[in-house]
Structure formats: structure tokens, C-alpha cells
Amino acid sequence: MAKYIIKRILMVPVLLLLIAMFVFFLLNLSEADPVLMMMPAEYSQEDYDEMAERFGLDKPKPVQFVNWVKSAVTGEFGTSYKSKAAVSDEVLYRIPVSLKLAGVTTLLMILIGVPMGVMCAVKQYSVYDNIVNIAAKFMGSIPGFWLGLMLILVFSVNLHWLPSFGMKSWKSWILPVFTFLLPYLANYLRQVRSAMLDCIRQDYVRTSRSKGQKESVVIFRDALKNALLPIITLTGGTFASMIGGAVMIEQVFAFPGIGYKVLEGINNRDMPVILACTIILALFTIGAQLIIDILYAVVDPRIRSSFAGKKKVKKEISTAGGTN
Amino acid sequence: MANTGKDGRKRMKKRGQMAEAWARMKTQPIAVVSLAVVAVLVLVAIFADLIVPYSKAITQVASDKLLPPGTAGHILGTDGFGRDMFARIIHGTRTALEIGLISAGASIVISTFLACLCATVGGWVDNLIMRFIDVVSCIPSLVMALAICAALGNGIPQLVFALFFTGLPMHTKMVRSVALGVAKMEYVESAVALGAKPGYIMMRHMIPNLASVIIINGTAQVSMNIMMGATLGFVGLGVKAPTPEWGTMLADGLSYMLRNQYMVLVPGLVLALAALFINSLGDSLRDALDPQLKGRA
Amino acid sequence: MKKKMVKRILACALAATMVVAMAGCGSSKDTKETSAKSGEESKKPASVSDIEINEAGVDATGHEGEEAPEGVQEGTTYNHWTNYDIPIYTPWMDNRAAVLSYQIYDNLLVKWRGDVNDIRCNIAESYEVSDDGLVWDFKLRDDVTFSDGSGLTAQDFIATWDVMETYQPRPFASVESYEAVSDYELKITLSAPNPTFIYELPTQNIYGVVSHKALEQYGPEDNRSAVGCGPYYVESYTTGEKFVLKAREDYWNKERAPHIETCEIDIIADENTAMMGLLNGELDCMNTVDIEVMNNLLDNGITLALIEDRENPFWLNCRTVDCLKDIKVREALCHMIDWDALSELVYDGLYPHPDSYFTGDEAPKYSEKYDYDPELGLKMLDEAGYKPEDIDFTILADPDFTDLEVALVSQFNEHGLTNIDTVTYDGATCYGMLKSGTYDCFPVHNGYDPTSPLTPFTMGLLEGGTQPCMFLKDADEAAYNEAVAIYDKVVSSTTTDEYFKNVTELENLVQEQCLALGGLQVIRGYAFSDKIRGAYVSPVSAEIQFSDLWVAED
């Protein structure tokens, strides 16, 4: 067990390095010359060379990458081509904003999604189930940027109830969180429903019922307890994808999160910013995934026992966890 | 999610499985409606030029701009350039489906191939592919699509590539987990023991057994890619103007949302409904193809 | 049986959702119409084109003539919009940072209320220019203080300019030397008489001054060095979110003393969000080049002021596109664009189509080469040996003006030139591509410095420069050399008259030989919330001095 956890943690830096390499390669496909973008309107060849040297862009690409990795290890993600400010200063401030947005949204998603999903499963094929199902499909089909602007139009411009941008007070969080929540909730409650259904169909639930247990006990003690594991996995996975999924929401509501920054970086073709943001987002994704997998391994007795077994089984479980 | 059923699914002949699925689907009105809507979308995309000429979708007439829906000659009105909204929606269907279908199709084909390779060959091939997939799947898909589009520039081919690439890791993981189950089945193992080549096993045993998971995931991916294409259009990456495309139409319409609501409502509704029905179709297909999921209760 | 019921209910539910969605949208439309009506009642202009262009030195909020109160108005705030972040705001770092640098830095001279024709003394108490126009002698006020309380001396200018020159060499090209004669006297020597120098001097992000102590301590790329002597100072800056500026009670120039206590600059990337922020009363000012946003603001009863921005001709790059080397092809393309129709289409006719690339009374008018005549254009292409579809290039678009490019491309496409298309990149990328010359066609102003009406388009004719006239060299080397010769005459002009004569000659040559596609005069709309007064927006460069602003009392 400990061996498994250590192995997974040791994989993280390797994974990050590979991700950085991949993104670095991807961004270098662009033809635009970053040095030129930084030059003033008129410049000489010496100015150009000086600028290239200052940002280390005169070196071959592999050397540039190695240098970047060296400084990234110390927490310095280089200098923004656009603003010439240290990237880490700009990016690190935004992590808590994105985490908070994703955290609040996840919390609401659990509070709303679990009861609704369980209800759907319990009353499968009822009117309620079908309405929620259709509504969820519909909600999942609305583009976030469109919904966000429409909500601002209604609740800020027409009704003057809520602020339209920024992070001024708790009220500023209502619209972004709601817009962000909707598509994730839609997906989440349907998955909670199917996780719950899987459990309701299990033999021990049937046994419990046949023993004459009260229906509420059957649902909450037997079925829900067993459905918790897939629900936890699901929640963790959703949280991980939320951190990087808020790009449009942050853009529309002028929320200074990491998604807003990555979009700014992409628009400016500002490679150090994109690289830093992607690495941080990837780190959170990996972190969330790691925690889930470990929790999963700790909680589920079937999996725990399998660690005593062969190596191959382990691998399969870890990838199966990553699938959801 | 869809990786159930790897335990002891009976091997069926492809035609039989499909026919049975179709029989099940026919009884579901939602499935039939979704299928009909999607069929209409596909027909519209194919015969767009017969419905309304492409030139109408890009011809700008200053005197006709911002006509409301219902105006003679312009059922859905005209946009800020005086272009016919109906023609743009119709030809936008073609662009949207082209983007959605090609990119999702490509991810499915490539990921199925990779997954089968993992399952049949295994060993270092499996390891290499899965580590690559691990790396790619750690980058949030929207960020990745944005970065690819930014690096490669605007245009349909670039957009399709970006969407194809972002869809790849999830599918490969899903298909692989099912394929591993298939690879362990007795008849596959016995085929291997008898010396069948990986290519033969892939075509003969893997693909038929993976058909349902491929179709289900593929449908979901189509609607996801259409939505993501729209999102990229909103930030100015994606399809080149003046090519009609739902997402860019929606993004262009946003500055008109106070005075000419139809400019955001028409493409918005078309986009949302298309995604809705494609998703519904995917769900119906899942129910029909994978009856264990539904019928067990 | 039961299942069928469920399905029927389901179908109904689906239909109901649709109806609700439609009804919801419909009702929001109704409320909008009523609010538009109430806007009309208070005799506001019905359409944007009814508004006259705002003159320099006139209050853009429409309350010219009202008296500003004395001193700082306690508890007042003003929220300004910007769509980009400015992580480092020392004056030399980011030339888009004017929105901030005009509030926190000050200068020897000042453009009074944004008017280039009304330049007054500021930090300089008085100045003298030698007869040959080469030596400028400034006497400084002795009561100027920085926002950290320390006093200003000539030494601060020297330290600032030493740094500035390395970051922004161009404005210093004609400056031979500068020295501090005493603590309160500064002498600048020019290498040649420069009629435009006086217009460059009041530019905060070129000649603005920071405290040399802070600069020496923290270096040029650190916000702690951004200690200016302007009427406001940055109280806090939150990356990606906002700047909070506070008025200085001890500001030394009583004529330009600030009135509003707190000014916030909010960073909002999406223009639609900003517009709704203004409508919701969260922002006090926004500006836009989008006619639809202007219409929306007008509909909601918001006063709009129109400011003339630059004209951006679409320059054609002969270096990347072979067929454009042929002057006949360029002329044929010029014949194929109906600029008036484009203006009508994209800007409701608001943006005029000027009769020259250049501004000013001396600017040469377009010749018949620029007349709209698509038939002739197609004939000329044919004569030059090109089929319409041979003309294959991409117009690079700046997101601000994308609509124009799209309309332009569609016009070409309608004439059968189907291989002309457009691609949009962010401003910074466009700028990079502009400099590397890796674009085919881009709308960019002719190179005039917006802050100085007399600077000729230097950028276009110098090697290592970026701008479009360079392409003349690829198309017609003789014409290019001639242009460079005239340019040299322009920059060595000693009098304004001579300067203008040479400039006109140069402009004429460029206009007749480069044959860019022409362009539209950009009009920028400024909107302010009802309470704000004293918004003097300078034409073209569009800066606003927050210290002129004040809040109307009920």
C-alpha cells in the first residue's frame, strides 16, 4: 500500500516534466517570433540580439527548455514576454481565486447533485426522473459564455440585483458560480443517478429489501453507502476538471483566476505565461487524481486486498480510476 | 461510466447485435425523435446547397441589415452584415457537423486503434501509449484546444485537429479498459494461443465487441466538439470569417443581445438543441446497445 | 400503458421547457423596449450618427461650462474600464499603459485638458528656446513633490530619461544631450531643429518623471520604482482585477488638483461585460469602436461622445505576396472596394471614408486610382495577366476591427477574388507580425505619432522599421529611394512651413506609389455615467486626465 502511494507520488514530477515538454513543443509550432513582439517600433539588430539574449531566446530550443525547467524547479516560471513581469507573481496570486471558485461550485454541486441524483435513481422512470433527466441534458447543452452574459443581462442590467463583474463582495460570486455550476451539475447528477442505480440493482440491496427493511433504510444504509465510493471518485474528478474548466466563466465575469490568465497568455502568445499556467493546472489535476486514487485504494476493501496480489492488477485499477 | 459489461458479454454477430439494438430503439419515442432530428441535421448538412445557395450566407447587403425574423425573404432575419440568418444557420450546420463529426471520428478511430494495440500487444507498447495519454490527459481539454489553435492558427483543419487531439486521451482510456476485458475472454485467448496475429484479433474480435462503446462515446464526443468549437469561436480562435458557423454566429451576436435578441437566440437555440438531440441519441444508443445498463432493474 | 403516459408527459415537459425558454427571452425583450422608450423621452439623439464629433478641450460628458468644485470631494469614486492588465507600470514599460501613466506621472509641460494646441507649463515654471531651435532651457518649480513626499529636482529627470532612452529610443532620436544645470534648471540640446519636439514633451509615458531615489533602489522593472509626482498615486494593485488610485491632498499644481478621491481602474477583458457593467452603474466610463455597443448605450439613455481616432489604410505587403508587386494589381484592388458601402454596412455610416491616407489640411487628396469601379478593376487584373482567383492573400485582423475585415473580404469574394481571406490575432501578435513582416495585408495608421501632430511616418521608411512603406522597396526600388530622400528633407526641416511642404510631397509620393487599400476614419465612442463631469478626452491618443474629473452634486 505504502509502496503504491510512494510510487504514485514519485511519478508526479516525471509527469509534470513530460507535460511541460509537450506544451513547450506545442507552443513552438507557432511561427510568430517572440523576440520581435517584444521589440519597440524601431530597433537595430543589436537591440534584437540583446533582447533575445535577455530572455534566453538566442539559445537552441532544447537548451531553452532545460533552462526553463531549472528555474521552474526553484519556483520561478520565467518572465512574461508581454509585461516583462515575473510570471510566478502574476500566476500564483490567481491560484486561490480559481480554487475557491472550483471549491464553492463543487460544494454546491454535491449539495444539489447528490440528493437529486439519488432521488432520480430511487424513482427511476418516474415523471420526476424524466424531467430532471431532460433538464440536465438541456442544461449541459448551453454554452457557458452565452449563459453568463444572459444572466448578467437579466440580473445586473435589468434587475440590478447582482454585480456584473469582478470580485467585490459575496454577491459577485453568485452569477459566476451558478453559470459554472450548471453544466457540471447536469453531468454530475446523471452520473450519481447511474452510480446509485448500479448499487440498487446489487444483490445485497435485494436481500435487504426481501428481509422487510424499511425502504428509506434500504436506500440510505445499503445502497447510498455503497454508491459513495464511485460518487467520491466522480466528485474528485469533476473538481479537478473544474480548475481548468473555468476559462470562459472567468473571462466573461472578469474573474482574476488562472483560466483568465491562460486565455490572456494565449491571446498574447506569451509562452512563459501559458507554460506556467498549464503546469499549475496539470499539477492540480494530477493532485486531485492522486488523492482520489489513494482514497479509493484505502477505502475499498476489494481493492485494498488486491494490492497483496500481482502487480498487473494494480495498474488496471489506477487507470480505471482515471477513466471517470 | 460505460466500461461496464466487460464481464461476460456474449459474443454476437455484428449484424445481429445492431438489429437487436435497433429493435429496442424503435420502441423509445425519445430515441426515435433524436434519431430523426440528427438525421435531418445530417441531411441539411449534405444538401445545404440545394436548400439555399451558399452565396446567400455570405452576401452582405447594407440596406438589409438587422431585419427581424419573419421578414419576407428572410425567415430568420438578417445579421449585422445583412446576411440571411437562415442561410447561415443551414450552412453553419454543415460547418458544425463537419467539425464535430470529423474530429470525433478521428479521435475514435485513432483511439480505438491505440487501445486495441494496448490490449493485444501489451507490454512496453501499452506502457508507452498509456504514459503519453496520461501526460496529455493532465492538461485541461479547453486549455489544450486553445493552445493548439493559438499555435496553429485559425481555420477548420486546425480546429478539427485541436478537437481531435483533446478527445483522444479520454477515448483511449475508455476503449482500452473495455478492450482489456475482451482480450481476456477465452475465445480471444485461445485465438492467441493458436497463433493469430494481433491485426487479425483486432479486426475479428476486438472491433465487433467494442462497437457499442465506440458508438456511444463517439456520439457524445460529436456534441462536445461542436460545443467546444463554438467556445473557441467566441474567443476568436477557430473558423475563419466569413464562413458560417453556429459558435461564431453566436459570439458575433452577443453585442446585439440588447437590441436584436434573435441574433443570439437563433444560433444559441440551434446550437443547444443540436447538442441536446445528439446527446439524447447517444444515451438512447447506450440504452439500446447495452441493455444490461438499463434493463436490469 | 403506464410507460406511454410517461412518454407523453415527457414530450409535454420538453415542449414546456422550450416555451419557457422562448417566453423568458421574449419578456426580457419587452423590458428592453420600454427602457429604450424612456431614454427617448429625455431628448437624446436618436442614432449615433446624429452626434457631433467631440472637440478637444470640450467636456465629453456633455456638461461643458459647469464649474468644478474646489479641492478633493470626499468619499467620491470613479470606476474606469481597461481591457488589459498592466503588471509593471513604470512609465517606460508598456506603451498601452497611458490610462494609468497620465494619472500618476507628471511632466515638464502638459496638454491642457488633452488639447495638443494648448500646451502649458507644468513642472517647468518657464522655458526658453534658442533662436536656432536647438537648445531648450527649462526652469523648474521648486515646490514639486513626489507621492512619497520627497521633492523633485532636475536630477530626477536625468535619472528617468537615462532609463527611458534605453527602453524607448525613438523619441530621443533627435535629442543630442540633456543636463541638469542646477537643481531647478534643465537643458536639452537637440541634434537638429525638431518642430515636433514640443508635442512630444507633454507625453507622460515618454518624458514623465519618477523619483530617482526609488529608481536607483529598485531598478526600472519594479513597481516600487513607479513613484511619480502626478495628482494620483497607486494605493493598491491586484493583478488581473483592478488598480486603486488615491488623490493626493498635497498635490502641488493647484490648477490641476484632483477632485475625485478614489479612482478605480477595473480590468475586464470582455467588452460586453464592460458595457453591462456601465449599464448597471458599476463602471463610470467605457469606450468602444463597436457601433452596436454605442447603439446599446444610446438606447439606454447614456450620453455618448465621439472622438476621432486614427485612419488605418490597409497596406499591401509585396514581400510576402508576389502578385502584389505589380502596381496594376494594387490599383485594381483599390478599384474594387466600395468604402462608403462598407462604412454603411459595418458602422451605420458613422465612420467617414476620408479622401487621403493622411490627416491635416495639407494632406494630398486621392487620385482617380482610388475610385470605386469594380469593372475597371477586373479589367486591369486581366490586363496584368491575372485571373481573379490568382489574387491570393490573407488580411490580418485586429480583434477591435474584425467586422470591417470580414466585410471587406466578402466584398472581394463577391467580385470573384475568392482567395482573399482574413485571420484574426490578438493585438500583440499583430504587432509582432507587423514587425516581422510576416503578414500580407494589415490596416495600420500611417505612422504618425498620435501624441504629436507633426511627426512624419518615420517608421515606414527606415531600415529595421516595421511599417508598411517598406514594401515600396520590394515593389519599386526607385520610388522607395525617392521617398527616403524626401523623408531626409522632412526631418531636417528648420521651419514649420518647410516641414509641411516636404511632408506633403512625401505623402503624395507614398499615396500614389504604395497604393494601399485606403481605409476608414475610426470614430471612438466614449460613454460616462450621469454623475461624472469634466472628462476631457484628447483626440486620437484618447487619454483622460482623472484630475479633471469631478462628481456632480445633486
TrEMBL record, chain A:
It comes from the Bacteria. Residues 95-292 form the ABC transmembrane type-1 domain. Gene3D superfamilies: MetI-like. InterPro entries: BPD_transp_1_N (IPR045621), MetI-like (IPR000515), MetI-like_sf (IPR035906). Pfam families: BPD_transp_1, BPD_transp_1_N. The chain crosses the membrane at residues 101-122, 134-161, 173-189, 228-253, 273-299. Keywords: Cell membrane, Membrane, Transmembrane, Transmembrane helix, Transport. It is a multi-pass membrane protein. It is found in: Cell membrane. One of its GO terms (cellular component) is plasma membrane. Its main location: membrane. GO terms for biological process: transmembrane transport. PANTHER family: DIPEPTIDE TRANSPORT SYSTEM PERMEASE PROTEIN DPPB-RELATED (PTHR43163). Belongs to the binding-protein-dependent transport system permease family. This is Peptide/nickel transport system permease protein.
TrEMBL record, chain B:
PANTHER family: OLIGOPEPTIDE TRANSPORT SYSTEM PERMEASE PROTEIN APPC, PEPTIDE ABC TRANSPORTER PERMEASE PROTEIN. It is a multi-pass membrane protein. GO terms for cellular component: plasma membrane. It holds the Pfam family OppC_N. It comes from Faecalicatena orotica. Keywords: Cell membrane, Membrane, Transmembrane, Transmembrane helix, Transport. This is Peptide/nickel transport system permease protein. It is found in: Cell membrane. GO terms for biological process: transmembrane transport. The chain crosses the membrane at residues 101-125, 210-239, 259-278. Its main location: membrane.
TrEMBL record, chain C:
InterPro entries: SBP_5, SBP_5_dom. One of its GO terms (molecular function) is peptide transmembrane transporter activity. Residues 27-52 are annotated as: Disordered. Residues 1-23 form the signal peptide. One of its GO terms (biological process) is peptide transport. Residues 29-44 have a biased composition (Basic and acidic residues). Residues 122-461 form the Solute-binding protein family domain. Keywords: Signal. It comes from the Bacteria. This is ABC-type transport system substrate-binding protein.
